[in-house]
Amino acid sequence: MRRSLVIAAVLLVLAFLLVGGPSLLLSVTTDQTATDATTRTQSQSQSQSQSTPELVTLEDSESSFWEYLSPKQTFQKRSPINVIVRGDTEDVERILADPDAGGDWSEINESEEEALPDTYSLTGGNASDNGTRPENETIDEPMANNSSRNATNETPTEPDGPLPDLDWGNADGGTRYAYVNPGPNESGYWTTETRQLEDGDYYGQRYHIRLYESPNENDDWVIMQTHSEHFDWFTLRHRVHGSQDAQTKVEADFMKHPRVDVQDDVRRMYLANRNSADADGWATVVELAGLLVVPTLVGARARRRTARASSQTESAGEQIAQRAPDAIDDHLTDVDRQRLAAAYARLEAGHIFLVFTILALYLGVRMSGLVLERQAGFLTPHQIAALLYPVIGVGIPLATYLVARGLTRRLDAAVVAAGSLAVAIWLDYSLLGVSALPVDVVAQRMLVVVALGLIAGGAAKRAARSSKFNDMLLVGTAMWVLVLAGTLLGYL
């Protein structure tokens, strides 16, 4: 029993070092989270003191809009509007989908839209579109507010129930409402999106746009909320990991179009709707009014282009790799060499096999999802998830148990299995371009890393000498089942 507790403690430390530690360095920092909480508290106080919200009115327009989207038909400051286009929806789609200008955007497939599960947001429980990934601003604009504000007669209502203390929570689904007002002597109202566009893969990483048209036929403008998201195989949900990165991409796609003047037709406007560590309150404004846009066919299904390292970078990496062994050896003491020799003596072929098994299963699910999405058009997103999720939920722990049965030492098996899963998780996020994780995801990943390590340690020969169903194996299995079940049910 004492040995099992020691191994469990080692796994907790290892999970923190391999998952929690890097997450603290790469994800939302404590200061950013605190700032968010302060901003949210201020917003609540302002909503209580104000009887009417302020709407944004563009120049030469009578209609106006609220600078946020809301998951309900109430004034909840959730998803900031970050792109405004002076034009109509057809012009927007033609430009973004124009293959001659490198456009990769396409309208979201109906089955994917319906299958869009709950997502997560920074601002407390009801939005999928706020980002969590901090980005540096790429365009410098004068800090000036070019918009005017008009009041409406609508009285904001508070969200149902108190907001949670943490900044992450379940959303109510994929619907987002925009509040618009047609103009003077008109009443404002809530509306759903006119269209949704995507660029990327449903089971990988994709950019997502929601477009809302002006309620006034005389005012040609479209407001957009853009964000980047990825499919999380542990939770079977899309998780939003940023809005500013997607905004920059949309902005760049407009600027690449030959009929858009970079100097005159693209700028940024301050809407003061920053409510997360990612959204900075600045919206991209694109002038398409009066622009002759030649109709084009919507391009094929979008896929995100991944930048590849140049040959010069590869050459530099090879040079470093060649010199690294000598540099390391020069700094090793005799004690260090003895410890490395002892560790090498404990290494078994099964350890290597266990590493590749976990990596292959975990990353294989991601790759298989992308292949099925692209090649098996007859399968719906739910069917693909039903086919592949058992590999995550059952295949990984079962394969770990079977391989670890051939290993001798409990601690070695536990550390190798836990470390392999942690490496697989980070490799997966690296392939998706995700560099920020919310607190609940970090905690969940740490728990599954510890659980898989306990399963491997309990399956090792020395642990199975007294009983195949020992304490480590039972605790690890129960922990794995409870964590995954709690995640799918929304408790984690």
From TrEMBL:
Residues 120-133, 144-156 have a biased composition (Polar residues). Residues 37-52 have a biased composition (Low complexity). Residues 37-58, 113-186 are annotated as: Disordered. The chain crosses the membrane at residues 347-364, 384-404, 411-429, 441-460, 472-491. Keywords: Membrane, Transmembrane, Transmembrane helix. This is Uncharacterized protein. It comes from Natrinema salaciae.
